[in-house]
Structure formats: structure tokens, C-alpha cells
Fold each of these.
Amino acid sequence: MSSPLIQCPACRAWLMEGVFNQPEFTPCPACGLPLLTEVFPALFRKAGAVQSGQAVLVEGESSCFFHPQKKAVLPCDSCGRFMCALCDCTLHGQHLCPTCLEAGKTKGKIKSLENQRTRYDQIALSLAILPLLIFYFTLITAPMTLFIAIRYWNAPMSVVRTNKIRFILAILIAVLQIAGWTILFIFLATHHGNRVRHN
Amino acid sequence: METGSDIIKYKRLTRSGARSGFAAAFQTRTSLWLGPDHLLSVESTGYTENYKRFYFRDIQAIVVQGTRNYQALTGILSIFAVILILVTFFSMPNYPFAIFFGILAGVFLMFLSLNLIGGPTCKTFLRTAVQIEQLPPLGRVRKTRTVLKKIHPLIVAAQGGELSPEAISAGLREWSEPSSQPTASGTVEDDPNVPPRLMP
């Protein structure tokens, strides 16, 4: 992958420079399939050398929290622990130690590292709507919908859809279903009571 | 450290598109979103979402490969639509059959129209230093061109300028020259990813 040469996605042939950044589709030199290839300066950027951290030379010199034998170069912006050049993880201009980076990822504090979310709003809405096909199920699913909607109201939403419209709809539908069942039970109870009194 | 209040506003670039493959099409849908400094690919199963971020500064290349699915789909749908229209026409005296086949023909005509409106098909791949990722929502040339028109200036701005044809040639030359040492057989074996080539 470090090579700046690009392969044709279909035949895996190496593409020549005449194919790059053309305004129209150009046939692949090997298979003839039309290709539109846009390349950017990052293709030729050389990977920077990885710093391994300098060893502590003078006794009493600040050392890395994670590698005591290595010289500390800066503190973590989150926890303040001293870090060597190897442990310094730069993210959005902040210098973080690996522990804070991992904690930030797992706890969802660093948004740009989050790579999965559960759509509780979609789950609640589906639970409110789908059982309507066999409406007896709504007796169980309506309270479940309400529980999910209330329990996860403040849980992180989708990264791209941030409104709570699905939760609101789910709650409304669930409340209507519960109201419907309540009315039905009251009606049955009163109807049954009247019949017993008449007899 | 960042907090939960750092909400990035994304702008939708494409509607959800399915990965190629019949089963996958029903399992996951992928959409593309434009962030302030990156492209966000959202793969959704309906109840969970997986995110992939492609930072503009890291994008090395975007390769669009034209496919023949458009022609194939147009041909198949046209044949079915014509057959169903003929069946509808010949079953006119029998109204229930005519209505049934008429509706079927209408469905095929609708898919045919959608295919024609969508235009030629393609597969789009995005390359960074460590991955080559297919972008399923960019499956039509017209849509892909529109998206490329939007993101191209952002990528160029993030990487400090456009690559000229001379810069591409120079980059390829510069990259291949330093460690190129002819072997005893007269070929260059500087990188296992590159096919060996004869020295001039």
C-alpha cells in the first residue's frame, strides 16, 4: 500500500500516469474498462519516521510513565502523566497518552474515534410499529417501547441524525396502544359487570 | 479531551446504497456524509451504525471504474417490460388478467425509468495510505461526478494544492529512483508491490 502506483480495480494491472486526473473516463491499459482516477498529493507523501523515544541519560531526569527507561517529552493533555515520544498520540492538536486515548474511545468521549452506535430510537420505533401487524403483541411491546424510549432518551444518537423524532413517535404510538388496551379492558370489565348484574 | 458536546454537523452527500451482492443489499446500507475535515461513511443495519472516517488530508486517490450493469439492467428490464405489455395487450378481453399483467408491466417500466434516470453505473474506490475502500453509494457515474465535484476542492485544500501532470510524473520517478538497484538479472527489485521492470 505504500507504493504510489495504483491498480485497476478490475484486472489489478498497474495504472500509468496518463490515466491519472483526466477529465473523462480513460480505458485501463490492460482490460480496457473505463476508469476515472483522481490522485492527490498525499499519494506521494513520504511516511514520517516513527520516534521511539530517547533513553534517560541523567539520573533524576523525568521519565515516561509507561516506559521508565525513556525520557519524558511532554505531559498528557488529559491525565497529566509524563510521556515519551513513543507514547505521545496526537489527536486534533491534543497530546494524549495511550490509556486516555483508549478510555476516550471506549467511553465515547472522543467522538472522532467512535466507530459504532446503537440506534435505540430506531429500535423503539420498530417495536412500536411492527407488532401492529399482529396487534395482540402490542400489549407487551407498547410498555417495552416506552421503557426503551425513556431509558435511552439521553443515550448517544446516530452521529448523522441527531433529532429525537423517532423516540417521540415511538412514545406517541406506544401511549396510544396502551390507551387502546386500557379502554378495551375497561369496556370489557364494565360490559361483563353489567351482564352479571342483569343475570 | 473532547466531550459529548462536540457535535459535528454532517451534510448528506448520498442516499443509502447497498454493497454489491444480493444478500448484502438487504443486510446493510451505506450512505456518505460530508464533515468539516472528513468524509463519513455510515454503514447501517437499521439498528446499529458503523462509521468510517476518511480525512481529506489522508485521501490519496479516488478511482471510479465504469461497469456494464447499466446496459445489462436496461436490456433485461426492457425485454420484460415489452413481454408484459404484449401479454397485457393480448389478454385484454380477460380483464382480471389484463389488469394483473398491466400492473406488472408498470412495475417493470418504473424500474426501467429509474435505471435510465440514474444513468451509467460504476464502482468507486477510495484509497488512503493503509486501505482501499469501496464506496457503495457512489454506484452511478452522474452521482459520483456530483460528489467528486464537491469533495475535490476540499481534498485539494487540505493537502495544499492540486497535482499537475508534471508533479505526478516527478512523484512517480522520485519514488522509484532512490533505492532502484539493478540486480544481476538486469531487473529492478525495489519494492515487492511493484512489478520488476527492465533497466534502460
Note: Strands of chain A lie at 26-27, 34-39, 74-75, 82-83, 89-91, 94-96, 116-118.
Amino acid sequence: MSQASLAVFQGFGLGLRPPHYPDFLTGQVPVDFVEVISENFMVKGGKPLNVLAEVRERYPVALHGVSMSIGSADGIKLDYLIRLKALVDRVQPLWVSDHLCWTGLEGFNSHDLLPLPYTEDALRVVCANVRLAQDVLERPLLLENPSTYLQFSDDVLAEWTFLSEVCQRTGCYLLLDVNNVYVSARNNNFDPLVYLAGLPSDRIRQIHLAGHSDNKRGLLIDTHDHAVPDPVWSLYREACNLLSEAAIMIERDDEIPPLAELLTELDVARALVATRRHAA
Amino acid sequence: MNLLALQRNMREHLLRGSEHIAREIRGDAATRLAVYYDAYRMRLMDCLRDTFERVRAWVGDSGFETAAQRHIELHPPHNWTLAEYGNGFDCTLADIYPNDPEIAELAWLDWSLHRAFEGPNAKSLKAHDLSGVNWNSAVLSIVPTLRMRPVVTNCAAIWAAIAEGQTPPAMRRLAATSALRVWRAGFSPNFRTIDPLEHEALLMAAEGATFASICTAIEAARTSEASEVAGGFLASWVQDGLLTSIDSCL
């Protein structure tokens, strides 16, 4: 399974959030795909699943998870994967993504995207977990680069090298969150352009664009509650120069604005890609 | 340090503020770790606030946050979905407010409606599905979202008033213990106050008792009008969408 390839899907999309359900159910929102938080729909029934089924009739859907815990030293929970596989079978998504992080250990779940040390030990654990997930889900995963607020003394690999190695060893793909690159670069003092250049661009299938906050203690926090700020747009321009085709979306999880505002941001993302193509 | 040891240290930091992980971190560990320590608690607090909206309105922000903080410290999450985290918060509230039983009852109601919202789908019977049923052997199947509990206060009236944006009534102890039933019909979670006899009848039905034996139990509890009572229960269950099928045990 780890050698399966994933077709390119090029387009512009938004995260499907409850305030915008009625809009998406009309099928008239001008996007090429929507992304949903997998866990919100890994439920037994009720209205959310029904909404998802109806939206799926109108748009391709990408599944984006926050609880796979791909970096847990005690492995991924099989019951989680089985529930996710049931959703995959129901939705037939473009792809399934989650984060390069760990969320829980030995029965405890933090419900946060906790940072991994970038060591050979962690690389072995992550690769084993990715292979298991891909085997159960019967498709390659997309891994998203996380926002991080610390680095470990034991790190021997840069995050971009770590991600490249995971791709090479498991056949997985990447979801590049440009905001996360910016946030982590500011927090951990690395050059975001070096990060972008260090990724295997042919493995990137999706891009997230989002906003962040300043915690007033010297760190940027990946809050997804603001519009995409100028520095993230600048970095996105650079990413557009490096990347082949990918699915690009605005990710907003809090302080959800009217749909029109997100569509305006998405138009900016479209225009920047068009500009790059024109220049090329 | 290997990954397992490092992750255990990070977990201990999140749960208890243990400092062992700090030596593994570059730079200002305290500032950086604080982001994760605070985010862990904030996420759980937000989850409880969202799930127990009517409890928060009843006890006020300060009382709610104190209770939620205690719950978070005593009950770390174990499920992969945050949607499960509110399970048991009613028990925490019962411990904190032993003389205010309506608070735990409100919490149970908030939680049960939340659970019903995402519970399994089921198609409810209509009145015309009852024709031709052999009631001597009939076994009732009930929607999988049904939850019940005894209540001693007017929590249902308090909950409804808060939900409608009205001034809630004062807490009042009921003359006799009643029960609440919560269920979902279609996509709408609902609740209703029921008397102990209906509670007992529904418990029997959920355990697979025949309708005839339910009627016998009602007859034992009510010396008169037992058949009218049983018929009333049945009509109410059909009207509320509680029944999914009626099968014969023969």
C-alpha cells in the first residue's frame, strides 16, 4: 500500500464549518472542493453526517484529522483507524490528512497537536504508524507540517528533512500549511524559505492558508481565528514558485466570518497562482 | 531520551506541571511549555462550556469555571474525540453541589441531548404501523438514543426557560420523584418529564420485555385504569417517535 500513488487534484477550496452549511447545501458556493474535520463526522448518526452526505453530492471532499496521533510511541489506536476507515468508505474523499505530531499516549489524550523530537527514534515510530494507517485506510496519507512552539535538544533532523524522510520511507504525501511554516519559523528561528526548498515539492498535494495570533510572550500561536496576514501571503507566493499543482484552501476554525470574506481570501490565493502561471 | 520517555514526561507536564521535560527543550522552556500547558486546559474548558451551556447559565461563569477546572484536573481525557469529554461532568457537579441537585440534573440533560444529537439514526414507527399487532407477544424496539434518569427537581422547566432566553423559575423539589427521558426523533433531540411508572415501563421495554408483561407490571402498580395507562404510554411513545419496530416474541 505504501507505494500507491495519489492523483493530483488542482483547485481552490474552503473548510466546511457549521455556520456555512446552508450555503454549501445549495451547491452554489464557487469552490472546487471542501475539507472537513474527520473527527466531527466519525459519529454514529445525526444531522452532521446527513449534511456531509448532501455536501458530498455537490463537492469533492478532503478529510482532515486532528486525532490520529501519528507520532505516538505506543502506536495508533486501531479503533480510531477503523472508525476513520468507515468514514472514508462513506465519503470517498480526495484524500485523508493528519498532522505530524502526537496527541496522546497510553490512554491519555491531550486533544492538542504536541511536538515531536526530530530524531531517528521518532522517525522510526512515525514511519511505522504511517504504514499502519495507510494499510488500514487503503490509501496514502497526507501529513501536515505542524505549528510548533519549542524544539527538543535531541533533534538531529530539521523538520523539513524529517518530513522528506517520512515521505520517502512510507510513500505518504504532504499537506503544506504555509501559516504553520511561518509560525514555526518565527518561534524557532529558522528560515521559512529554506524550509520550503527542503520539502519534496512533488509530494505536496494540498496547501492550507490561515491566520495566527501573537501570545505577547514572544511566540506566535496557530489560532486559525484571523484572516491570512501579509507575511503568510508573501510566503505563499514563494511556495507557488516551488510547487507543482496542488489543492489550495483557506483554513478558518474560530471567529468564523461570513462566507463572502473567506471567498474573497480564496480569490487572492487564486490570483497569486494565476500570476505565477502568467510569469512562467 | 527515547520517544516513549519523552512523551511520558510531556504528558506529566500537561497533567501535573512536572518539570522533567524542561531539560529536553532548547531555550526558554518555561515560556514555550506554557503554551501547551495552557492550551490543554483551555481546550477542555471550551469543550465543557459549549456542551453544558445551560448549566453555565444557571450557576454563572465563576461557579462553572471552578467546577470545570476541578473536573479537568480530576478527569483527564481518554477518548480520541473531544465530543466524549463531558461524560461524567454531572457527577463532578453532584459532588461540588450536594445541596443543589438541579445542577447535576441540568448537566445530565445538557449531556444527554448532546449525545443524542450525534447518536445512531433510526426510523420511527407511525401509528398506522400498529395495525394487526398481536399485543400478547409484541416486543417493542426503542430508538437507540433513548436515555433516562430519575429527577427530584424542576430541572426540565429551568432548562427550557434558559434555552428560550426567559428568566428561569426558582429551583423546586418535586412532590414525588419523576424521570426524564431524552431521545432523538429524526434529527431533533428531545426531552420529556415522565412519571416513575412510565420510566419503569420503558426500562422493561428496553430490556426486551413483551408489551403484555409491561401491562402486567402496570396493573400491579395501578389497581385501576391499568389498560388506559398502558395505552396512553404506547400512544405517547409512538407520537414521540420512540419506537422503531414491534416484533413478535413467538
Note: Chain B touches chain A through 46 residues (CB under 8 Å).
